[in-house]
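General statements about sequence and structure are easier to judge against a single worked case. In the encoding step, the backbone of a single protein was reduced to a row of integers, each denoting a local shape. The record that follows shows the chain in one-letter code together with its fold in token form.
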Amino acid sequence: MKRKMKEKSNRLAAACMIGIMTLALAACSSETDIGENLVSNDDGDKKTINLFGPMEKSKPNVNNIARTAFDLTVEMAEEEYGLTVRYKTYTAEDYQEKTYDDVTLDRVRSHMDDLYLLNPDTIQILGSENQLLDLSVLNSAKNLRDVVKTANTVNGKLVAIPQEVVAHGLFLNKDMFDKYHLELPNTPEEFMECCKVFKENGIETPVGANRWWLENFVFAQAYAELYNGGNTAALIEELNKGEAKYSDYMRPGFEYLKELIDKGYIDAQTAYTYEAIEGEGADFLAQKTPIVMAYWAAANSETAYGKPDFNLQVIGFPSKLGQMPVVSMTGYAICADAEHLDDTLDVLDTILSDEALQLYAETNKVISPSKNVEVECIDALKPLNDKINDNVYVLGSNAGMNVEQWGNTCLIVRELLNGATVDECMAAFDKLQEEALNK
């Protein structure tokens, strides 16, 4: 059972973190040869560095905005330093035993590549093993938002940096709130009252939910004060030493979710089976459901919520400190024993420079990790954007915590949806913490 839980957690992390940028990616490999399905581009005798990630280089005439934005920043580095970044990845054809996370762990430990795109749980593991370089030596590191440094620091070392900050929020049909004279909620109590009014007015399920993102309600309530109270590092140290319990932080959020379920504001059975956006999205767009949850880019995408027939507003999740964005992120990391270390540092410093990040953010319309890069966002996202710019947030992924947050919390929320009690869910957190302390 313990092995099964770990495998599920790795798969969830891969699907929910890197999967946010490439929704269908859960790249796996053959058990016998982790390099068997690799695809690479090689430019002959030109000086190269090796990049391992979940996506190939964009092909001509293929409309892949996220990949194109990254490719453009890589090209800046290639031109500046006269080298080639060789992409190594997996085709999406072979879903077998090893997850993307399993493979990146193997490859970093074996020093097979120079540069990696990593999920939070692998950043945490490899950082604690001293397998990743301290990236605070980069010139671009001084421009990072505090949220990025907090999320990707392990044992005092900044071991990974993303090209974008992924913020999750509540997507609301403002027209439906106006119809029933409801203010947009700030606190858990206000949110509960909104759900009550919707239910009383014939809206069967006020909150459209899926099996991936309900943990955001938990994170917002669990960690609002931890991340916004001025003593974040000390509180995390207490958790890592076992002087405080993750379950004590998590309990209010789980009790809140249980109440939403018991009152019929969330359909637990349906949420347990729904995929993100694909499940609850249709009812939200049809104005049958006033509330869903999603990540920042979904508000810009016409295939998600970018073209609704109503006034869309995206706000943070309810907490005792008000509307609270929940932030998660992957990160680029350099193998501590990279074969082409100096060249890799130069390349990463270039693609994380303000110039490159401005290009990336403008292309993808995302929040930049650099505090110097601002991109005009659509009106619907301004409430969420304002909070991030004011450094108001909680982290759904934090490599500095010795218990992986995103995947584990998602799994345990799914147990709640499937009928587990709050006490049983808290016991699961206590077990995870005990295992972390005994490592």
